[in-house]
Amino acid sequence: MSDGSADPRPDAPPPHGPEPVPPPAGPDRPPSPHAPRPAAHDPAQPPWPTAPRPGAAQPPGPQVGAPGPAQPYWPTGPHAAAPGPAQPYWPTGPHAVPAHWPVAPHSGAPAPGTAGQGWPGVPGVAPPPGEEPRQRLHPLSPALHGAKSLVVVIAGLSWSTLSRVGFGWFAAMAAVLALGATVLAVISWYNTGYHIVGRELRVHEGLIWRRTRAIPLERLQAVEVVRPLLAQLTGLAELRLEVVGGGKTEAPLAYLGVAEAAALRQRLLAVAGRTPEAVAPTAGPAAAPAPAGRRLHTVRNTDLLVSQLLTPQAFLLPFGVAFVVAQFLSAGSWSFIAVASTLTAMAGVLLQPVRRVLDDWAFRLDRDGDTLRIRNGLLETRAQTVPLHRVQTVGVTWPLLWRMKGWLRLRLEVAGYSAAEPDDRNRPDRLLPVGDLRTGELVVAEVLPGVRLTALPLTRPPRRARWLRPLSRSAIGAGLDERVFAARSGLLTRRLAIVPYARIQSVRVTQGPAQRRLRLATVHADTAGGAGAAAHDRDVAEAWQLAAELTARAHAARRAGGDPLS
Predict the structure, then answer these.
(1) What one-character DSSP code corresponds to residue 117?
(2) Is residue 194 part of a domain?
(3) Angle between helices 312-331 and 336-359 (to 10 degrees)
(4) What is the 3-state secondary structure (H, E, C) of 255-308?
(5) pLDDT digit string (tens) for 52-75?
(6) Do 311 and 183 have their domain in common?
(7) DSSP code at position 449
(8) Cα 45 off chain centre by
(9) Which domain holds residue 318?
(10) 420 in the same domain as 544
C-alpha cells in the first residue's frame, strides 16, 4: 500500500501512473521541474516562480525551501527572484537538490577539497582566486619557543635531581627534554598561519586537532608589538591583540619580523577603522613602518626611579631590614633556612618596583592622527597603538608620597583590558607613569579634547555622609562637565575617573542599609571596560536626578556620534 511518498530512485515510475508530458514552456507557464536542467540562464527564458504548484502541500516547520514528497524542487533562495547571467535557476543548498541531479558550482566558488573561505585548509592547495594566502610566522619562532622551554625544563629539574643523578645524566635529561620541546615547536610553527579574510583575522593552528580562530576586527581595541629580550637579540617581535570583552590577549602572533609586525599592525588598525584601502594586502614583510607622529611627552628615567622609591614598598624596606637583622642578632640564629626565607621575602617586596622601572623605562607618548602610540620597556619593549575613539575612561591617581612633588599617574581604560594583571605590572593601559600636573593636563586634553583637569566641577556629598566617611568625605566629589562625567575618591591615594558621555553603557543607583537610613545613594556610570565611575553618597533626590541627566547626555552624545543604538 502506498503512503503517497515519492520513490527516491531516479528511474522509479510515478506513484500514480505515468506523469503527463508537460506542455512546452511559454511566457505564462514555467518549464517542468523534471525537465533537463539548463546550464546557464537564458535571458529569453522567464524566471522560475518561487511559490509551489497549486495544490501542493506545504511542509510544516521552517524547512520551507527543503524538498519533500509534495514539495516541488522550485528554488526559493535569494537568487531565484533576481538571477544573474552566470547563476542558474536551480537551488544549490545541501537540501534543495536531489543527489541524482548534477549541480554546477557557482562562478568563483571554491570546489570541495580546496582551501578557501569556509573550507578547512589543506596543505599544498592554493586558495581560490582573490583570497589572500596564509602567512607563516618567522622561521626562528621555534628556536625562541624552544629556548623558553629549555629554561622551564632546567627549572623543573631541581638541584636535588642534579645531586642524585650527577651532572652528566642531568645534562642528558635536559637536552632530551629540550630537543622534544623544540620538535614540538617546529611542528606547531609549520601548522600555524594567519591571513585576513574580509574584516576578520583568521589564525589557523594545530596538527591533530586543527583550530581556526576568527577575530572580527570591528571589536579590535588596541594592538601591541612586544619584544622580549630574546626577540630583541634576534630582530623579532610579538603581535598581541586586545578585543572587546576579551579576558586575555587574543591571537598572539609570536614571532614576526619587526617590519612585518609593524605593517600588520597598521593594516589591522586600518581595517578596524573601516579604511577602504586597508583591505588590500601589504607590500610584504619589508614594508616600512608608519612615521612616529607628533611627540607628546617623554618620561625622564630619573623621575621614574624616584617615583618608585617613593612607594610604600621602597619606603618601608629599610625598617623591615633593620627589624630582621635585630631579630637575628637577638636570637643568635644564622641558619641557612632563616637567611634564605628572609632574602626571599625582601626580594618579593623589591621585585614589584623594579619590574615597574624596567617596564616603563624610556616611556614615550606620541600622537599620530586619531591614535596614540606608546613605547616603553628596557628588557621587554612594547609598542602599543590605541585608537582614541576606543578610550572608555581616563583615570588619574595621586599617590600619597607623590603629592609632595606634585606628581600624578594617568591610566587608560580600554575595553578588553579590565582582566589585566592586578598588580599593575603588565597592564597595557599606562598613559603616563609619572608626571606633574601640567603634563597631566596636556595629555588629558589630547585624549579628551576640551576637558581641563583642573576645571572639572566636582561637588562634595551632603554633610550627613560624614557618618559613613568621617575622614574621606572632603576627598569625595562628583560632577557633570560639558563633555564628561567625573568622580573623585580616596583619602591616602586620591583617584579621579573621567568618563566621556558617549562611552557610558548603563547607569545604576544603589543603596546600602546605612545609606537608606541616611537618605543617601550611589550613582554608577558603567562602561564597556567595566570600571567606569561612581558618585558616592549623594542625596537620594540628587542621585536620581544625576542618573537621569547621565542617561540623557549619554544618548545625546551617541546620537551626535552616529551610534545607531541610540
Answers:
(1) T
(2) yes
(3) 170
(4) EEEHHHHHHHHHHHHHHHCCCHHHHCCCCCCCCCCCCCCEEEEECCHHHHHHHH
(5) 444 444 444 444 444 444 444 444
(6) no
(7) T
(8) 51
(9) 298-361
(10) yes
Contact 125, 79 (CB under 8 A): no
At 468, list the grid cell: 559613613
Which of 521, 522, 453, 439 lies closest to 483 in space, CA to CA?
453
Q: Would residue 185 count as lying in a domain?
A: yes
- pLDDT computed for residue 487 by the predictor: 97
| Together in a domain, 399 and 461 | yes
Query: Do 410 and 525 fall within a single domain?
Result: yes
Dist CA 381 CA 387 (whole Å): 20
- Rounded Cα gap, residues 533 and 548, in angstroms: 16
CATH of the domain at 184: 2.30.29
Is residue 473 within 8 A of residue 460, CB to CB? The reply is: yes
Grid cell at residue 496: 579621579
Question: What local confidence, expressed as pLDDT, does residue 128 receive?
Answer: 56
Looking at the DSSP assignment, which residues form a beta bridge with residue 195? 202
What number of residues does the chain have? 566
Structure confidence at residue 130 (pLDDT):
52
The Cα–Cα gap between 252 and 264 comes to 13
Tell me whether the omega of the peptide bond preceding residue 501 falls within 30 degrees of 0, making it cis: no
Total domains present in the chain: 3
Q: Tell me phi and psi for residue 458, to 5 degrees.
A: -105, 130
In angstroms and rounded to an integer, the radius of gyration of the C-alpha atoms of the chain is 33
Rounded Cα gap, residues 287 and 534, in angstroms: 46
Say yes or no: 348 and 399 in one domain: no
Residues 345 and 404 in one domain: no
Give me the pLDDT at residue 322, please: 77
CA distance 280 to 29: 47
- Report CA dihedral (285, 288, 290, 294) to the nearest 10 degrees: 140
Q: Are residues 311 and 412 in the same domain?
A: no
User: Which residues does the chain have with pLDDT short of 50?
Assistant: 1-124, 274-291, 418-423, 425-426
Residue 265 sits in the same domain as residue 145? yes
Q: Write out the three cell numbers for 176.
A: 632530551
